[in-house]
Design the sequence.
């Protein structure tokens, strides 16, 4: 009986111990998670406390599509040389050179280059032309009063990439319908009427005309004419004023006519001067105020006549001048003159004057003198 009781007690104690061990194991399992599951609960805990950060992917570069090229324009000229052929003198000539936009894009003309003696512009001022559209460069110029071959070039600029600058040529032949002789006159001061010949004017096409005007430089040459008379040929006898001619050694004669294809005749004249001076112009470099400079001057008579120099004088009393030596030549003299520059006027670096060689009989020969001061004031040779 006792043995049974002891056995029951041992069994009870054993069960109690087993039950306690199981409870402890269960309590430990509840407090510490299993090793293999530790990573997921921590991740879950982090997700519960902080929102997950979004991982930004690098932005992709935006590819810009190339702009489509504009369709090309093309300028095609009907011709690049415009020949006016034979034209009359003193006439306004007009013409045009046509072109077409033979390209696929809009043609833009940016500039029509300037040309000496020629006015060139686009028709109606239009500068843009659609594909297939045509236009024109208008040309205007006045022919000369004398016979010549007239040639000019002008350049048209556009957005034609293959031909951005097109050169156009203009050509014409100026043909006289009126002719005159002589074309030039050489007049002599020691001859009657300066040795001026008669002037003949002819109509080459048989068209009668009148003379309506006669004008010479300085009015030193005149002529008698009747503007009411018409003819195909005139012979004029010019009259020369010797006193006026002495002051005008070069000039022109303009004769006005009524011929429809030749309304003017122009004659050039020059006078053989009585004297030749070398040098014709005195230029003094590196001059110093009031310091004399010596120069050599030769004076010859072009008509082979002797003369005498009485004195020399300054026209404006700016430059001091005197003759140091006078050596006689055939129909002339070799002079050694002393020129004294004036004090400078303010900050001026130059001076000018006209002095005269005074001949026996009252005739005077003017000689111009230009001088430039020596800025650095360096010593220089005064005699040449």
Sequence:
């Amino acid at each position: 009986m006792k043995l049974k009781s002891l056995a029951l007690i041992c069994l009870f104690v054993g069960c109690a111990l087993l039950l306690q061990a199981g409870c402890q194991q269960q309590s430990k399992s509840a407090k510490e998670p299993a090793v293999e599951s530790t990573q997921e609960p921590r991740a879950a805990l982090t997700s519960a406390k902080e929102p997950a950060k979004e991982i930004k992917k690098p932005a992709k570069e935006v590819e810009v599509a190339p702009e489509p090229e504009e369709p090309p324009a093309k300028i095609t000229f009907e011709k690049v040389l415009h020949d006016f052929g034979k034209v009359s003198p003193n006439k306004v000539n007009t013409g045009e050179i046509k072109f077409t936009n033979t390209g696929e894009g809009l043609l833009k003309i940016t500039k029509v280059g300037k040309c000496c003696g020629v006015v060139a512009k686009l028709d109606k001022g239009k500068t843009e032309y659609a594909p297939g559209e045509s236009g024109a460069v208008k040309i205007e110029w006045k022919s000369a009063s004398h016979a010549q071959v007239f040639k000019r070039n002008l350049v048209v600029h556009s957005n034609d990439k293959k031909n951005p600058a097109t050169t156009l040529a203009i050509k014409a032949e100026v043909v006289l319908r009126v002719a005159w002789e002589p074309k030039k006159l050489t007049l002599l001061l020691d001859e009657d009427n300066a040795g001026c010949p008669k002037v003949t004017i002819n109509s080459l096409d048989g068209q009668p005309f009148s003379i309506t005007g006669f004008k010479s430089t300085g009015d030193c040459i005149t002529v008698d004419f009747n503007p009411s008379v018409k003819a195909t040929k005139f012979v004029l006898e010019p009259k020369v004023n010797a006193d006026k001619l002495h002051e005008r050694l070069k000039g022109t004669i303009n004769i006005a006519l009524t011929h429809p294809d030749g309304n003017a005749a122009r004659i050039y004249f020059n006078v053989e001067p009585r004297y030749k001076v070398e040098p014709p112009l005195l230029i003094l470099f590196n001059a110093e105020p009031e310091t004399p400079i010596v120069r050599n001057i030769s004076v010859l008579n072009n008509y082979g006549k002797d003369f005498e120099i009485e004195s020399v004088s300054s026209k404006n009393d700016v430059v001091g001048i005197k003759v140091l030596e006078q050596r006689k030549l055939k129909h002339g003299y070799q002079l050694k003159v002393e020129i004294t520059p004036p004090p400078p006027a303010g900050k001026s670096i130059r001076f000018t004057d006209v002095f005269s060689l005074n001949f026996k009989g009252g005739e005077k020969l003017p000689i111009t003198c230009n001088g430039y001061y020596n800025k650095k004031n360096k010593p220089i040779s005064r005699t040449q």
